[in-house]
Amino acid sequence: MNNTNKTAAKLAGVVVVMAGLSFAAVPFYDWFCRVTGFGGTTLVATEAPSEILDQTIQIRFDASTEVGMPWEFKPMQRTMTVRIGENALAFYEAYNPTDRVVGGTASYNVTPDAAGGFFSKIACFCFTEQVLQPGERVEMPVSFFVDPEIVKDREGKFVKEITLSYTFYETALPEEQAALKAADDGIVN
Question: Which pTM value belongs to this model?
């Protein structure tokens, strides 16, 4: 093998490795954010901590939809004051004003970013796809707490207000729903 072929083989190897790393970057970044709370990504917990502080924190709720998502989506309360460590329950409302079945998935984050690693959800509508029938209106709960460790964190201890924000995106209907819709539309496979 001459030098030109060796160089070409090495460059092809570099291209393959770089392509592989580019595909791995998105899931790795997603995992990193979920584990560390980086970028305002919230954490998931199975239960609230046993320690509840007397100190409170203001939680603001925000809602939006992706361009083209036909749902109306809003928080049922704009703010809530919770004790740090306390399990709290908030509700969002979604409405499908269309004459068709629409599926959606919510992405979420919190601001400021310093709060992401201390804001944990126990249960949330955002964990699964939501499907609304034509004209259907639903209340969707989110159970959460702010970890007491926030008061010991060098940045977190200055956080007095956290905004929990959701954006709903339209998604393809699950197979069962799509089959029902096709049957309703008179489409046979």
Answer: 0.71
